[in-house]
Design brief:
Elements lengths: L1 H11 L8 H24 L2 H6 L1 H25 L13 H7 L2 H8 L2 H8 L5 H6 L12 H12 L1 H26 L4 H4 L2 H12 L12 H48 L3 H6 L1 H11 L3 H16 L1 E5 L6 E7 L2 E7 L3
Antiparallel strand pairs: 1-2, 2-3
Length: 333
């Protein structure tokens, strides 16, 4: 059972490709099932389609629910195989896994369906909640995984930027309330009423359903729009910078791994070609970029020389990288 658990952990959590066709089929089947579920939920929201194919939607939902439930409990069972020591405990480790974001998404993907199947409730909100299954694709999509990683890394900065944006929205709502409150009491008669205009103006959306009509109101609106151009772009800029930093970090990690293998000789790269390709896919690096980094690593390694100091006899490592020369003294063992 432990061997089966280890194998299943490699299949479901690490998506290991070296485990044969069954591993590939399991992951491919889960991805396809998630996509079909999303399509099914979208189509069933149309009343005519739902009425015509109701039996099909119900049968497919029951089958999907059984598979997703089995997957959830399987992931809870194999969670003790995680490298983190806190996950090794058979009870506390599994409870800790059940509180992780992805485990909560898996749980939310099946709970609404149980309410619908077991209790006969067919509320619109329960149907919509099943769309949380689309987030299960995060495990299989490198772009989604990259987005989640960047969001975690830039969470504090993003929260600060959004907090500043909300402060500006409150200030804008207060200002337009003071300027236009008496003229348009229905739209700007209170700060809560003015929040809608402040939000759509500062975010540069501008629906045009509520607009200032006085000269002072229009002047204030122009100032808010100009401020909003920079404020609304701030979170997007933070995410863009985070994407660039994370991609560069992953490329550097890939290059360092190539350098460590090249030091064992070119034959080592050939032997570890599959592992290198798996690492490339894990980090989300394209084939062309990977090939260029292998060439760069080989050129960089060729520019490294070793010699002995004529004075003390210790080894000196001369490393030429990007036009710079680094000298590193190494004591002989």
């Amino acid at each position: 059972m432990q061997t089966l658990r280890q194998w299943l952990y490699q299949v479901l959590e690490n998506h290991a490709k070296g485990l044969g066709i069954p591993s590939h089929l399991i992951n491919l089947g889960l991805m396809l099932l998630i996509l079909l579920n999303v399509i099914s939920i979208i189509l069933s929201s149309e009343a005519q389609i739902h009425a015509r194919y109701q039996i099909f939607f119900e049968v497919f939902e029951v089958i999907s629910l059984m598979i997703f439930t089995l997957e959830y409990f399987a992931r809870v069972w194999i969670s003790v195989e995680h490298d983190d020591r806190r996950r090794k405990h058979p009870v506390k480790g599994r409870l800790r896994y059940m509180l992780t974001p992805m485990a909560l998404i898996d749980l939310l993907a099946i709970v609404p369906s149980y309410f619908m199947v077991l209790f006969g409730t067919d509320l619109l909100i329960l149907r919509a909640l099943r769309l949380v299954r689309v987030f299960k694709l995060t495990r299989y999509s490198r772009s989604m995984e990259l987005l989640v990683t960047v969001a975690k890394q830039e969470a504090e900065t993003m929260i600060s930027a959004i907090f500043i944006l909300w402060i500006m929205i409150v200030i804008a709502a207060t200002g337009i309330f003071l300027v236009e409150g008496d003229i348009q009491p229905e739209e700007f008669g209170s700060i809560p009423r003015a929040l809608w205009w402040a939000t759509v103006t500062l975010t540069t959306v501008g629906y045009g359903d509520v607009v200032p009509i006085t000269v002072m109101g229009k002047v204030f609106g122009v100032v808010i729009v100009i401020l909003g151009i920079g404020m609304a772009a701030l979170p997007a800029g933070i995410l863009a910078s985070g994407f660039t930093t994370e991609i560069n970090r992953r490329r550097e990690r890939f290059k360092l791994k190539i350098l460590s293998w090249l030091k064992d000789g070119d034959s080592s790269i050939q032997l570890k070609k599959q592992r290198l390709d798996d690492l490339r896919l894990e980090l989300g690096i394209g084939r062309q970029d990977a090939s260029m980094m292998i060439i760069e690593a080989r050129n960089e390694l060729k520019m490294s020389h070793h010699l002995d100091c004529p004075h003390c006899g210790n080894s000196i490592h001369i490393h030429h990288s990007h036009g710079n020369i680094h000298l590193e003294k190494r004591n002989k063992q």
